[in-house]
C-alpha cells in the first residue's frame, strides 16, 4: 500500500505536471467559497493543496473543507508551478483520503500561532513535536549524534554498551535510584565510568558509549534532568590533554556538520549557527577564581566548587567555549589523577559553554595502590568497588576520558531556554509521564 511518493521538501516547481502522493497532517484549511486551500504538513515542511470545487466535484470538495485540523490525510494530485505558493508549487488534487480524523479541540496549537506553557506542551508531547520548530531541534539532535559517531569511527574509537543496572554507585555518592532486582537491591547507573576504565584494562584501548545515565538529584532548574543521554569516551595511553583535543574537535565538528547538513532546520529555527573556533581556551581553576575576584568582586575560597554566579560571570567574560583545568583534587572524583609534584591539584577538566558546563573529564588514576588510597580519602570503602579494582591488579594502561551531556550540547547549540526542549520525553523530579 503506497500512501506517499514524496515528502513536501522533495517537490519543486520543476516537477510541473507530475503526479505525486503526499501524506501528513492537515495543518490549516482556508475556505474562500468556491476554492479552498489545504496546507498539508509533513516532516520536511508544508505543501499547499488547492481545492477547486468545479474540478473536484461537490461531494469531495465538501468533504475536504470539513477536514479537522491535524487530521492525518493522503493527497494524490498533480504538481503545478505557482510562484505565489510556498516553495513555488501547489498540488491540484485528484484524490483525498482522511486516514485518521483528529478530535476537537486540540490540546495545543501546532501552528505556533498560540503560545502555551512548557508543562502543557510536555503533557501533550506527541502534539508539541508536530510544531516545526520543535521537530527541527530533534532532527538537529539526530544530526549531532551522526556527526559524533562518524568522528569517533574515523578516530578508530569503538562503540560499546555498558550496564545500566548496577550493584554499586559509580561515584560513591547517594544520588542513586534504587530498584528491586529479584532478591537484591540494585541501582540505575549514574555513569559508565567504572566500566569504561575496566575496558581499558581489557585492551580495547579506545571506546565510546552513547546511552542514558540516571541521577537522583533533587534539582529543579532549566539545565538539570534526572535521566539524560551521556556521550562517554575513554582512551588508553593518553593524558588529559589528548582527550581534551578529541572533545573540542568532536564538539566543533558537530557544529560544522549541523551548519552544513541542517540548513532547512536552522531556517525553521530562524538562526545562523556559528562554528566554535579551535582550539578552545584553557583556563586554570586558580585563574578562574582570580578573574572572578578581579572583575566581579566574587570571593570564593580555593577548594570550593564554582558556584552558578561565578560560572555565569566567566561565561560572559570569555564569550566562547573554554576548558577549566587543574582543579583541586578534593573536588574531583577519586579516579582523577593528581599531579605528582602537586597532589593538591589534579588532571581534571570541565568543558564550558558560556551558559553552562557541557562535559567533565580527566586523566585517570591507573595505579592500583593510589586508586585504593584515593577511594579511602573520599571516605569510601574499597570493598564496595572490588569488581572495579580487580581490573587494576593485572596491568592497567594510563588512560583518560570524559562524559559529555547530549541535551546540554544541543540546548546551547540552538540557544534553547530549557533543557527539556532538547529531550523528547524528559524526566525530572516532577515528571514521570508521558
UniProtKB/TrEMBL annotation:
Cofactor(s) demanded: Mg(2+)
Ligand binding (ATP): 215-217, 223-225, 357, 405-408
Function: Aspartyl-tRNA synthetase with relaxed tRNA specificity since it is able to aspartylate not only its cognate tRNA(Asp) but also tRNA(Asn). Reaction proceeds in two steps: L-aspartate is first activated by ATP to form Asp-AMP and then transferred to the acceptor end of tRNA(Asp/Asn).
Site feature location: Important for tRNA non-discrimination: 86
Keyword Magnesium found: yes
Gene transcribed to yield this protein: aspS
Gene3D superfamilies: Bira Bifunctional Protein, Domain 2 (3.30.930.10), Nucleic acid-binding proteins (2.40.50.140)
A Gene Ontology BP annotation from the UniProt entry: aspartyl-tRNA aminoacylation
Subunit (UniProt): Homodimer.
UniProt-recorded name of the protein: Aspartate--tRNA(Asp/Asn) ligase
All copies of domain Aminoacyl-transfer RNA synthetases class-II family profile, residue ranges: 138-434
Any one of the GO CC terms: aminoacyl-tRNA synthetase multienzyme complex
EC annotation from Swiss-Prot or TrEMBL: 6.1.1.23
Keywords: Aminoacyl-tRNA synthetase, ATP-binding, Cytoplasm, Ligase, Magnesium, Metal-binding, Nucleotide-binding, Protein biosynthesis
Binding site residues for Mg(2+) 3: 357
Compartments, as annotated in UniProt: Cytoplasm
Similarity annotation: Belongs to the class-II aminoacyl-tRNA synthetase family. Type 2 subfamily.
